[in-house]
Amino acid sequence: MFGHLKSSARYALERDSSLRRHEVWPDDIFLVSFPKSGNTWIRFLLGNLMSPDKPVGFADIESVVPDIAVYPRADFREIKRPRLIKSHDCFDPRYRRVIYIIRDPRDVAVSLYYYAKKVKNIDDSFSLEAFVKRMLVPGRSYNGTWGEHAGSWLANATNIAHFCLPNNGVGAHSADLAHAQTGARGHGREFLLVRYEDLLEDAHAGLRRIAQFLGLEASTELIEQAVQRSAADSMRKLESAQNLQWATTRETRKDIPFVRKAKSGQWRTALSADSIAEIESAWGHLMRLTGYELASIT
Amino acid sequence: MIIRLAYLTNYFLERDIAGRSLYKLPDDIFLVAYPGSGGQWLRRLVANLLDPSSPVTEANVRSRLPDLYHTSRRGFAKMSRPRIIFSHECFDAEYGRVIYLVRDPRDVAGALYEQSRQGGSIENTIEQFVPLFCMKTDEYQGGWSEEFSGSIKANQGFAYRSRLKDEFLGTPASWGENVMSWIGARGRDPSAMLLLRYEDLITDPQVELGKIAEFLNLDASPERIRSALEATQRQAPPQDSGKWNKVLPETAIRAIESVWGPVMTAMGYALKADEVEQYR
């Protein structure tokens, strides 16, 4: 009863987290991804680029690039426009300006596995193989599966045939990838697809591209400074100093870091052949579309 | 102010309209269709299939098979399980299993135009209506636009409005966004989404109803399917398919096909543009 009263009061005062209750403004820019796809890194990169006077840390990242699942609804009104907002939500037609970050789902699986341990969703005895099987099941979570999340955002009129079953009796067409663009375009939606792996390879070029999309002024020096300040090493240092000041890590296990390897291709050694095959048979169509080479299926 | 207080009281009592913030249960099954796609017909059909002993009526369809836009959070919490729920929303990952009904967008445009004219909520001509249907207007920001929310908000009294959220209730968005979000997420997973076409439901209802019964794990005999079908047809005959060719002006057809042509092709709807091309 008290809990209900408290949550109703929070709702009435708009102190609840925003999520779908978020009041979208037309100039809002959303930094969207499935969890564990490099979203926090890009938040830091952009935060450091937009506020160059002082390095961004975990203690203040929420006020620079607020998380739609964390930041209170009322406080969103106080942020300078255009607001840059982090979100793990699946397709939301109200989002008009979207930066979509995608990462190889095999690496996402490995990263999410350690994160699930960190936030005490699973205990140490839970195997990675069982975790991968669980990841593939739809209808279990607000954020959906990796395939649902990416598919809901990336399907468009140029690639839709790619998402249909070849023999469902409705869509019986082979997909022509040569002409496929990626991203929920149309209806005047501004959409930028960012591959985490590309950003790892050349953070400067990647950040410049995002800055251009946002219409941000970004000199070579500013980009360089943002990349330095958001490097994995400095983020690790910031995490160990400030993990109690960040809502996302406050209640989690401190023996598993939030900022982990910050590399790609971990799946090659971490995942079993069965897990790789399961992921690729479920989401191979999306991996092909976004340029991730399949290891198990030709 | 008074309505705000009334709303907050309703929220506290969980009597606010559920909308997108419905608390989902793992065994829920959702019937999803874009407005004007024959979803109401499917809804009656399924309700009759579930309980063949008493046919649904205009008066009880909302309680027999509730939708997200009229039933409160509390009302949903009290339903017996497994719940079957009607929705117009774009992809929602929390919907465990979904029956998605798609219809030729040219007929959808015709049906929605007719509906809004009868409801008196727009005074546009069809030429003005179609670009709006294609959502090419800059002012569209999502949410229930006035044109599409007409049937929900029009002529609603204080009792309803005081249960309606200020914040996002939900939106079907545009036809293409709705269809593509579902196909993109679940198009290759028939165990999580049964994809049906309204046109097939009209021409071959026995077969399509059989698929529905199987998806719902109903042990439905051919007689049960037939009686559900007859009961539904008695109450409301389905709308014709392919009327768009007579109803829509050439410019409107071209507008719809140029925005969503490949989506229509993927769903098996032949484009008029292609037909014209062949005779050249």
Question: Summarize this, please?
Answer:
The complex is a heterodimer of chains A (298) and B (280). Chain A is α/β, with parallel strands linked by helices and 298 residues long. Helix content of chain A is 41%, strand content 7%.
Structure commentary:
The complex is a heterodimer of chains A (298) and B (280). Chain A is of the alpha/beta class and 298 residues long. Chain A contains 13 helices and 4 strands. Chain A has helices spanning 2-12, 39-50, 61-64, 105-118, 128-135, 146-154, 196-201, 203-214, 220-229, 232-242, 247-250, 267-270, 273-289, and strands spanning 29-33, 84-87, 97-102, 190-195. The longest helix of chain A is centred in the C-terminal third of the chain and has 17 residues, at 273-289. Chain A is globular and about 50 Å long. In chain A, 41% of the residues are buried. Residues 171-175 of chain A have low confidence and may be disordered. The radius of gyration of chain B is 19 Å and the shape is globular. Chain B is of the alpha/beta class. In chain B, helix 2 (39-50) packs across helix 12. A 4-stranded parallel beta sheet of chain B has the order 2-1-3-4, sandwiched between helices. Chain B has helices at 2-12, 39-50, 61-64, 73-77, 105-118, 126-133, 146-153, 158-161, 175-186, 198-203, 205-215, 222-235, 244-247, 250-266, 272-278, and strands at 29-33, 84-87, 97-102, 193-197. Chain B is built from 15 helices and 4 strands. The chains are: A alpha/beta (298), B alpha/beta (280).
Biggest sheet, spatial arrangement of strands of chain B: 2-1-3-4
Structural class of chain A: alpha/beta
Query: Greatest contact pair?
Result: A-B, 52 and 52 residues
Distance between the termini of chain B: 64 Å
What is the percent of helical residues of chain A?
40-55%
Radius of gyration of chain B from the CA trace? 19 Å
Oligomer state of the chains in this structure? heterodimer
Order of helices and strands of chain B: HEHHHEEHHHHHEHHHHHH
Give average pLDDT of chain A, whole number: 90
Helix count of chain B equals: 15
Largest sheet of chain B: 4 strands, parallel
